[in-house]
Predict the structure.
Amino acid sequence: MGAADGKLREEIAEVCRRMSGSGLVVGTSGNVSARTEDGNLLITPSGLDYAVLEPEDVVLVDLEGQVLEGDLLPSVETPMHAGIYRSRPDVAGIVHTHARFCTTLACLGWEIPPVHYMLAVLSDEGRIPLARYATYGTAELAANAVEALGSTHRACLLRNHGTIAVGVSPKEAYARTELLEEMAEIYYRARLAGEPVILRPEQLAEVSAKIHDYGQSKPSPR
């Protein structure tokens, strides 16, 4: 195992610990993956509690789902992760959850329209699409997720199932998962209270032009 892969394994394990403590997953639901430098993927094992997951438990597979390294079986959703990586060269981290508000919307058959400016972080269109239903762990579900994400969305809902968020790393995909759940809760509560106001395309375009440069990092200690 190379140093780069080792760091990715540690990052995946860290994301799993954060995800477990956040309440976005229950038990062993959901999964996390990362694209390696040589084009394979590291993914969480199937059915292993995140509370006991260690970096060495993460499984290395190729983009066809064949295990290259690891003593445990990879996640049953490996086909969906691999399909997204094949279709989106910009993606290097994926998080899948059954977060409550997102999954509630997915079970209602609702996508999230552009009701809040922060949705511009998750989609160039400011909306979160809903992938068609298919049985978990299948090539059909993988194709439906790829179709929903397209080239402009960084998150989607999976009908009667859960969520997908993507990023340049597992940490970024996880941060987008947290934001996605917040947006789902806001939209769900707004629908209960009345008719949400939809942002216009020009309003979203203005936000998109600003928001991707938002944020800063602390300088490194001298």
